[in-house]
Amino acid sequence: MALKDDPVEGGTGRGIFDCDAAHRSPLKDDYERIFQTGMIVLDTNVLLNLYRSNARTRQDTLAVLTKLRDRLWVPDQVLTEFWRNRELKSVRHHHSTKAKETSAALDKARRSAQDAVERWVKDVRLKQDEEVTQRIDEGLEALTGALDGLREIIDGQAECDALTDTAETHIDPVLSALDPLLQNRIGEPLSPGDYDKAVQEAQKRADEEIPPGYEDFRNKSPEQAAGDYLLWVQLVGEARTRERDVLLVTGDVKKDWWQTRDGDIPARPRAELVVELREAAGVRLYMLTPAELLTWAEELLEGLQVDKDSVNDLEQLRGADRGDDAPEAGWTRESLLAFLRALSGRYPAHAKVIVAAAANGGFVDRATVYELAGYPEDRQLKGFTRPISTVARELADLGSLHGEEPFLLHTIYGSATEPSWATGFRIPEETVPVLRECFEDGPLWPPSPKGDGDPSEDSGHLDGGGQ
Questions:
Q1: Quick one: which of 96, 78, 41 has its CA closest to 281?
Q2: Strand, helix or coil at 223?
Q3: Structure confidence by residue, pLDDT tens digits, 80-99
Q4: How many C-beta atoms lie closer than 10 Å to residue 457's C-beta?
Q5: Beta carbons within 8 Å of 63's beta carbon, 6+ residues apart
Q6: For 119-135, what is the mean pLDDT?
């Protein structure tokens, strides 16, 4: 009979944490070790938040990054996204943009209150010269004055918090701080071939909801949606080279990066990511939000004091560049018609392909695309979905789209002979019935579900199904 402390006869030697789904809660010693010897990877939102923050938060963030300078590393994908998003009004002019949004909401509230009171006055048949109507007018005037006062306070605070001198890069204070901080700490870009393979792999992983980044494929073009996976590929490669544990600092809190936050259980990376990095590089993955980084840095780094308001500020900014809190806007009959009218005028072949996919239950194969577009056999389909991105972005700028609609044409990769080839394209499932309603039996609709009709058929007149 075995004693209590003896291993069980025939046991494997494994413990309760020796399971891919298991995840130890990070300890103080883990973060202290990474701060001293690990690799700290910064996501795009960490850098962009330097523009969105007020002066105090910006100063505290830069102080922490400066203390950790020797441990910092930035993937090339982060640098690319930083420069692509830096010019957005929501970034460089964050405070004035938010002030304008709030002022617009206050104006809407004033109009709503005024309309409600005026309807009540009419419903109860009050006369304009009665005492009660005079008191109502005085109340509405006081409300207007109060809201105008709020607008002045908000505009004044926005002006106080605004970061100046960002228009020209050589005097931009954020760039001036980041340049020496990140010098020789930015990774190399992927080769064109590796980049294409990574984008294709990101699409495949998204179809199976393998983290990270599959959430972005709901409403972004493939190349933009693949951004999180491109960052991950570069992070894994660098970790393999350095053989050091990784701390990823990111404000992206979507479920394709993190385990669900629940009550008092601290957030931690998805177990699949921990396992993938361990198997690919032999190191451990940790993750913190920017606010959590400041909190741990103050506790572990000597001579560093962080204002609690800075932590709260970064908590409020969490996920701001990705619009995580905004409701997803789906396609409607009106928005689909507007999109396909614009698309057909400039890229008629793409409009035909989208409608052909709807006719075939949401998928159109490679051969049908070549037939509808009239492409020669030696032409590649690489970049075929870019016009979809272009038209969607332009319509969003004009206000015809919300900008959060699911991306309309996803590439499906892989075949027995050419795994890197597009086997076809898929449209979002929810758009199929709407497109059928709008276009069935119209000039864009193919004569059979496989879409093998005449590709020269006129596609310039979109009238919702030819009715």
A1: 41
A2: helix
A3: 999 988 888 878 888 888 88
A4: 14
A5: 304, 306
A6: 80
b/e code 29-51 from CB counts within 10 Å (16+ = b): ebbebbbeebbbbbbbbbbbbbb
Q: DSSP per residue over 348-402, as a string?
A: HHHHHHHHHHHHTTTEEEHHHHHHHHT--TT---TTTTHHHHHHHHHHHHHTSS-
Question: At 112, which amino acid appears?
Answer: S
Burial group, residue 116, by CB count within 10 angstroms (0-12, 13-18, 19+)? exposed
- Residue 126 near residue 137 (C-beta atoms within 8 A): no
Query: Cα separation of 90 and 99, whole Å?
Result: 11
Q: What is the CA radius of gyration of the chain?
A: 28
Which pLDDT belongs to residue 293?
94
pTM above 0.85, yes or no: no
Residue 282, by phi and psi: left (phi above 0), alpha (psi -120 to 50) or beta? left
Distance between CA atoms of residues 371 and 367, nearest Å: 6
Question: Quick check: 166 and 174 in contact, CB under 8 A?
Answer: yes
DSSP class of residue 186 equals B
Structure letter (DSSP) for residue 164: P
Render pLDDT for 313-324 as a digit per residue (tens, 0 to 9): 888 876 554 443
Res 418: pLDDT = 54
As beta bridge partners, residue 258 has: 269
- Tell me the mean pLDDT in the region 207-222: 80
Query: What pLDDT, in 10s, does the model give residues 17-26?
Result: 777 666 778 8
